[in-house]
Amino acid sequence: MATIAVSGASGKTGWRVVQEALQRGHQVKALVRPASQLPAGLEGAEVVRLELSDSTALQTALRGCEALVIATGARPSVDLAGPLKVDAFGVREQISACTAVGVNRVVLVSSLCAGRLLHPLNLFGLILMWKRLGERWLEQSGLAWTIVRPGGLSERDEGLEAEGVVFSGPDQQESNSIPRRLVARVCLDCLDTPASVGQIVEITSSPDQPPQPLGSWLAAS
Ligand SMILES: NC(=O)c1ccc[n+]([C@@H]2O[C@H](COP(=O)([O-])OP(=O)(O)OC[C@H]3O[C@@H](n4cnc5c(N)ncnc54)[C@H](OP(=O)(O)O)[C@@H]3O)[C@@H](O)[C@H]2O)c1
After folding, report:
1. How far is the CA of 214 from the centre of ligand 1 (A)?
2. Dmax of the chain from CA atoms?
3. What is the per-residue pLDDT for 203?
4. Whose CA is closest to 111, among 176, 32, 207?
């Protein structure tokens, strides 16, 4: 059992990461903003309210954790600087805090097509460019990192047992979707899979894909 911090824990992927981590027997610190609305899925976690820019509060929250799963992301907004602030600078703030307090293992939820300029998603504040910058800062951090790039996210929580994750390396997939619950499970699987350190893992899912563990895919790729 480890103590795992999950940022963006009030988000639709974040609370599922919290829930899955609790189900696997971990202790969880759920990091949310001062004004975040708390979803029901956080029951059983220690909720810590802070701004990512408050380095003292962030370091205090992370101290003693074995790993951080970053599930923050700019919410759709008229503020076109949101992606820069959250998906680039917000990630950098979290990397710095991990470095400062010795949290060596970090899993970042990013996105398919991160770094691609010509993409309709960039109409929202060049989000894919800032996500790639956040990824690059993590890659260069010296931490033990894994970047998980999911396709379009869905809220479906049912019928997932027979649905396999389609794994690939970077810049191999550009469409299709995946339920957030499966993204959460892959993030937790990364923490249990040392071979995922230093890897960018793209994920979508399909009922036609036989389920395969992350470790098996990594070993074969
Ligand atoms: N939507 C998609 O189809 C899709 C596809 C691929 C990848 N992604 C990425 O996957 C990740 C999870 O997506 P999601 O849709 O599940 O998330 P979400 O429900 O939109 O939640 C976003 C989380 O980030 C937090 N956040 C936003 N701005 C913040 C800030 N300035 N400081 C600190 N926390 C902040 C939110 O806190 P509050 O609750 O306080 O707002 C919330 O906890 C995101 O990085 C997203 O970009 C999304």
Report:
1. 24
2. 47
3. 98
4. 176
Task: Mark residue 92 as left, alpha or beta (left: phi above 0; alpha: psi -120 to 50; beta: remaining).
Answer: alpha
Residues of the chain with pLDDT under 70: none
The region, left, alpha or beta by phi > 0 then psi within -120 to 50, assigned to residue 44 is left
Q: What is the pLDDT of residue 35?
A: 98
Reported CATH class of domain 3-220: alpha beta
Distance from the alpha carbon of residue 37 to the mean position of ligand 1, in angstroms: 13
- The domain spans of the chain are 3-220
Please give the pLDDT value at position 162. 86
Pocket test for ligand 1, best of 13, 52, 55 (most atoms within 8 A of CB): 13
